[in-house]
Specification:
The chain is of the alpha/beta class. About 25% of the residues lie in helices and about 25% in strands. It has one domain: 4-Layer Sandwich (Metallo-beta-lactamase, Chain A), CATH 3.60.15.10. The strands form three sheets. The chain has a seven-stranded mixed β-sheet. Strands 9-10-12-13-14-15-16 form a seven-stranded mixed β-sheet. Strands 7-6-11 form a three-stranded antiparallel β-sheet, with no helix packed on it. The protein is globular. InterPro entries: DHPS-like_MBL-fold, Metallo-B-lactamas, Metallo-beta-lactamase_dom, RibonucZ/Hydroxyglut_hydro. One of its GO terms (molecular function) is transferase activity. This is Metallo-beta-lactamase/flavodoxin domain-containing protein.
């Protein structure tokens, strides 16, 4: 299995960065795009990394936020035969409430239209776990079990902040390899511990080679960080690659307190797991 990070908050020299995430996966003969960043920077970085977007077989969106879906319209024009996997809750109206008021964090209107205009046979809507060709597995809705994990922000379904957005469409994916599970996270609003436990329960596997992606710990307090480290330390994980919304402080905290290898992810990073 090969993973190339196309978009991240950090980047290698010669590549662009933005608040967003996108990864290109190659597994079992399938080419999968996981998330589409915030803008068309995805296409520019892909070209510079030698990734042919027209070769994509499947596109998986981790959840319905603008920074994971913004480049989708461009990708759909390039990947003319790719099938799109979306959780049923992806297109909800969503807002973040801050001191200056509410602002939308939902999928942009032009991207919604691009999804709606896609032929029915190229769209797969789901909620439960499923497997796509190449041995890539999608978690579906992740149960929230831990007491210390939450969505990581002030997210609501309305501008007034009356209805909390639990982000039930937040999903992750994984593949089984001879070296252990390879787990790929989008934003992990479900919580990294909840997500890994969900994958272990479904796969009936515990050994993990790599966990890569956004872990949404950027606003996490000490209690959540301690709880996360305590639970992750009890798991058989070889390597952790925090990206995007993990945050620099949390990434450093994980590196200093976990007993596994921790590498900061960035656009241009390539991982190969045999």
């Amino acid at each position: 299995m090969k993973i190339t990070i196309l978009v991240d908050n950090n980047s290698a020299e010669g590549l662009g960065s933005e608040h967003g995430l996108s990864m290109f996966l190659e597994a079992g003969g399938s080419k999968v795009l996981f998330d589409a960043g915030q803008t068309e920077l995805l296409a520019e970085n892909a070209d510079n990394l030698g990734v042919d977007l027209s070769s994509i077989d499947y596109i998986v969106l981790s959840h319905g936020h603008y920074d994971h879906t913004g480049g989708l319209g461009y990708v759909l024009k390039r990947a003319e035969k790719a099938k799109l996997y979306c959780h049923e809750g992806l297109l909800k109206a969503r807002y973040s409430l801050k001191t200056l008021g509410a602002h939308s964090v939902a999928v942009q209107e032009e991207i919604k239209k691009a999804i709606e205009n896609l032929p029915t046979e190229r769209k797969i809507w789901y909620e439960q776990p499923l497997t796509i060709p190449g041995g890539i597995n999608l978690t579906g809705t992740v149960p929230r079990i831990t007491a210390f994990e939450d969505t990581g922000g002030n997210f609501f379904l309305d501008r007034e902040g009356r209805y909390i957005d639990e982000l039930e469409d937040d999903i992750s994916l994984w593949a089984e390899t001879p070296r252990g599970l390879v787990i790929v996270l989008g934003c992990c609003h479900s919580g990294i511990v909840n997500t890994i436990r969900r994958i272990q329960d479904i796969s009936e596997k515990t050994k993990i080679d790599t966990v890569v992606g956004g872990m949404h710990l950027v606003h996490a307090g000490q209690e959540r960080l301690r709880g996360t480290v305590e639970d992750l330390s009890q798991m058989d994980i070889k390597c952790l690659v925090p990206c995007h919304c993990t945050g620099d402080y949390a990434a450093e905290y994980l590196k200093n307190n976990l007993n596994c290898e921790v590498q900061q992810g960035f656009a241009g990073m390539k991982l190969e797991i045999e």
